[in-house]
Predict the structure.
Amino acid sequence: MEAYMQFEIITKNSKLTTVLLDILQTEWPEAYGWLTDVIDDWSLIDFPQIVVATENEKIIGYYSLVAKELVKDNHGYTPWLGTLFVREKFRGKHYSHVLIEDACQRVKKMGYKNLYLATEHIGLYEKFRFEEIGLGLYLWGEPTKFYRRTI
């Protein structure tokens, strides 16, 4: 599986950006709105990074790395796995694991020792060696748990 998977950081003018936006508009509209805002304000230093995974020229999914999560208090933690998305037709094939491992290696190369995430998906990220480190609130008031993975 991994031998054929390609990872590409997309930019405002990447060919994959348009394809990914088209997919998200129908398959995950909530992320579509966030991603269009990021692209409109794009000023890449280290973050945000939007990394698209493809196999045989088909988009499998993507993840984002962000400096700050959309929570009321980031506690100074950085970087965050902002979003993780695997298209429905590719689920059940362990692609989430491959995407997370790529994210971890990417932030490790940047000199970070931890990767954080905020999620309401209890039981999912623990499989990928994330440890719960606290509770918080998203900016819109919804409760979330904070996780950390030491790299």
